[in-house]
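User: My instructor asked us to take a sequence, write out its structure as tokens, and then describe one feature of it. I'm not sure where to start. Here is the sequence I was given:
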Amino acid sequence: MSENTQPVFSIEKLYVKDLSLEVPGAPKIFLERENPQINVQLRTSGQAVDDGVYEVTLTVTVNAKIGEDRSLFLVEVAQCGIFQIRNVPESDLEPVMMIGCPNILFPYAREAVSDAVTRAGFQPVLLSPVNFEALYQSQRQQGAQSPAGEIPIQ
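Assistant: Let's start with the prediction itself. The structure tokens for your sequence are:
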């Protein structure tokens, strides 16, 4: 019997690993009429769980402020997936984990952020689509080496 060497990529599990929401100025902050400044940060990391099985985490942090110092809310979601990735050349493993997997995770993280913000009493935050390939290439061109396979995306 010959061993199958075809590349394998499958989603084993998608889940929210961590979700936090802070509304430090409540209840007075709900009386504000100014439009907040929204800052979004993305961070992607991956690690081996087993042979050919990897956990990839997409962390989305959304901070809404009024002015320089008044925080409206802060929400952070760590959306994770367990992926089976086998028979992929070592040189292609990082791009699969830092581009392909976040593309799968992002819609779930986007929904979790919007839901948390809405449940906190604010208008939903709808995150724009993200080109993870362009962000990955940009980070690589800048020579940014992050610990534990993390790629911070501003």
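For the description part of your assignment, you could build on this observation: Strands lie at 8-22, 37-50, 53-66, 70-86, 151-153. Try explaining in your own words what that tells you about the chain.
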